[in-house]
Design goal:
The complex is a heterodimer of chains A (about 350) and B (about 250). Chain A is an alpha/beta fold and about 350 residues long. Chain A contains six helices and 18 strands. Chain A has one domain. Chain B has one domain: Rossmann fold (3-Layer(aba) Sandwich), CATH 3.40.50. Chain B is built from ten helices and twelve strands. Chain B has about 250 residues and is of the alpha/beta class. In chain B, a hairpin with a 2-residue loop joins strand 11 and strand 12. In chain B, the strands form three sheets. In chain B, strands 6-9-10-3-11-12 form a six-stranded mixed sheet, with helices on both faces. Classes of the chains: A alpha/beta (about 350), B alpha/beta (about 250). The interface between A and B is medium-sized, with 23 and 31 residues. The complex binds adenosine-5'-diphosphate and magnesium ion. The site of adenosine-5'-diphosphate has 12 residues of chain B, from strand 2 and helix 1.
Chain lengths: ~350, ~250
């Protein structure tokens, strides 16, 4: 079978699926000839991979789920150290598909960085994060240097009772990215803060799709995605919040803000709320704007050149995301990466 | 120092300045008064180089150079400072980073090395004291969440940091209570030298008790319709602007 046809039919969703209206899957897979699966080398163990029960979405790497092998990481105890999971290079014409299970045990408090450093090819990763009761984790999906690589992530998080999650997805000038993030609230009093940063230049394409599903009550979820687009870059953000009938006292907030630095850049935003409980507080908002002219003039009126003022304003806009990353060294290096990218 | 000849300016095709003439020499203090909507802020914005306004006629020279050709940052580095009537909030840019960029831009323009971190912080501290600006404000984002009075103090603080030769104060007294007004006005006066000049835009006589002008100009409907000494302000305080409006209606 022709590889591209195989990819489109078997692995990746088609454009007919509404969730993929914005993401150009054919373009995404152009030039790909082979699909291989891999298991992260530094895993605690290799286990059989199965999607969480009730998960019907087609995962990013159907292939790996067919291979049924996943790198398994058990996170126990409390530590400020960072557990790095490295996603290695793929060759130009290949998709390398991986599955990762991050099992955050009860009462653990841990930091995890999934590091995408590839300069080429196509990395597809399924990440299944199990947040046990009373567990806490800070997770960063990290890609911070300009790259030709394509990235597809499909992350599913199960939140048990009183779990605390801070998760950020960082993409700085990657050629093509599609991130799916699903958070399922399964136990009460769980909390998450979700952040995303996309800096897209030239003809970069960076899409973030989140679905937060509240099956039980008394949980909170706060989302902020911010991005800066230049050149002919295109980005999409789609955020769906589902509050099921039993999920009373849910607090859910979702904000998406994009800044356009060029005429040809496009930022699509599609916030959606599906609320079936009555005693909840849910909000969403999205804005797309340019550099504020009054701010620019104010800075120039103090002697700062237009170029420097623009850089400072763009950095200020996106550095809000760095402030939300609770792992100090990652937040610091994010500020540096942001400044280098502008 | 500053010479304005027949200056006309418009915004969105609407003419606001309709032939302004003004000469300002080093060491002088000029007050500009006039009813709301006369064009006072427009004049200050045009001098600072706000690109929203279109200059349609006239010329402005600053120390012999054509001011209208310069970008706003160049004007600032040449020595023009505008204390904004409505200072802009810039969330995410800290006062410290903002002032460091401003001070070092000016130094670069003058061919000087950037200030060292210690010298810069020393300068911040020294100048903050002139307007009694709370040290906490220096760690916050530029004007973000500042009260009206704090914003005005912050303008004068920035002026102290940048040591300009032409100081344009656009209603720096509005929003200040009587104590804050005194502090800010004394700060402005303390920074006055024989080499710099001051333009005070105000509605109120009370500011001019502290910053005593050599000349008072009345701006009405885009023109300076009257110029006098400091006693003109007292006259206006008593009689209001109606007689001006009556006398100079088109
Ligand atoms: N951004 C703007 N767009 C349209 N009209 C403006 C704008 N700014 C000022 N104006 C108009 O210009 C005139 C002068 O305003 P301004 O210079 O602010 O007066 P003043 O400072 O003397 O109160 C007013 O009629 C005002 O409505
Ligand atoms: Mg005004």
């Amino acid at each position: 079978m022709n590889t591209t046809a195989f990819l489109l039919d078997e692995i990746l969703p088609t454009r007919k699926s509404e969730d993929y209206l914005y993401t150009d899957v054919a373009q995404f897979t152009a030039g790909i000839e082979t699909v291989t699966t891999a298991v992260c080398a530094d895993a605690d163990s290799v286990v059989d991979f199965a999607l969480p029960e009730g998960e019907t979405d087609k995962p990013a790497l159907f292939v790996a789920s067919k291979a049924k092998k996943a790198a398994y990481y058990a996170l126990e105890g409390q530590s400020d150290e960072v557990k790095y999971i490295n996603i290695d290079d793929a060759a130009d014409n290949e998709i390398v598909a991986r599955a990762i299970i991050i099992d955050v045990k009860a009462n653990a408090k841990r930091n995890v960085v999934v590091n995408f450093a590839s300069q080429s090819g196509f990395s597809a990763v399924d990440i299944y994060i199990k947040m046990a009761a009373e567990s806490a984790a800070n997770v960063v999906l990290w890609q911070d240097k300009p790259t030709k690589a394509r990235i597809f992530t499909h992350t599913i998080v199960d939140m048990q009772k009183s779990a605390r999650l801070n998760i950020s997805t960082i993409n700085i000038r990657a050629a093509q990215v599609r991130n799916n993030l699903r958070i399922n609230y399964l136990g009460e009093n769980a909390e998450s803060q979700i952040s995303g940063l996309y800096i897209a230049a030239d003809d970069n394409r960076i899409d973030n799709f989140t679905i937060v599903r509240h099956a039980v009550g008394h949980c909170t979820c706060e989302q902020l995605y911010k991005g800066v687009l230049s050149g002919k870059a295109v980005t999409a953000f789609s955020g769906l919040i589902v509050v099921e009938p039993d999920a009373q006292k849910t607090l859910a907030n979702q904000v998406n803000r994009s800044m356009l630095l060029s005429k040809d850049a496009r930022a699509y935003a599609k916030p959606q709320l599906e609320i079936y409980a009555d005693d909840v507080r849910c909000n969403h908002g999205s804005t797309t704007g340019q550099i504020d002219k009054d701010q620019l003039f104010y800075m120039q009126a103090r002697g700062i050149s237009e170029e420097e003022a623009r850089q400072m304003l763009v950095a200020a806009f996106v550095c809000e995301i760095a402030e939300r990353v609770p792992i100090a060294q990652m937040a610091d290096s994010l500020v540096d990466s942001i400044k280098n990218s502008l | 120092m500053l010479s304005i000849k027949n200056l006309h300016a418009e915004i969105d095709g609407k003419e606001i300045l309709r032939g302004i003439n003004l000469e300002i020499k080093a060491g002088e203090t000029h007050a500009i008064m006039g009813p709301n909507g006369s064009g006072k802020s427009t004049l200050s914005a045009v001098l600072a180089g706000n690109p929203m306004y279109n200059v349609t006629a006239g010329e402005v020279t600053f120390n012999g150079k054509n001011l209208l050709e310069m970008t706003p940052d160049k004007r600032a580095n040449e020595g023009i400072f505008l204390s904004f009537q409505y200072p802009t909030e810039i969330p995410g840019v800290s006062m410290t980073n903002f002032m460091r960029a401003a001070v070092n831009s000016k130094r670069k323009y003058q061919g000087l090395e950037p200030l060292s971190a210690t010298d810069f912080l020393k300068l911040m501290k020294e100048k903050r004291q002139i307007v009694e600006l709370d040290s906490k404000l220096a760690s916050r984002s530029v004007n973000a969440g500042f009260s009206g009075g704090e914003k005005k103090r912050n303008e004068v603080f920035q002026m102290a940091m940048l040591n300009p030769s032409l100081r344009i104060l656009d209603e720096t007294d509005s929003g200040l209570d009587i104590d804050a007004l005194r502090v800010v006005a004394e700060g402005v006066t303390a920074l006055k030298t024989k080499e710099n000049a001051t333009v005070v835009i105000t509605h109120y006589q009370r500011l001019l008790d502290y910053i005593v002008p050599d000349y008072i100009h009345i701006l009405y409907h885009g023109r300076i319709v009257m110029t006098g000494g400091k006693e003109l302000a007292l006259d206006l305080e008593k009689r209001g602007y109606d007689w001006i409006k009556e006398q100079f209606k088109d």
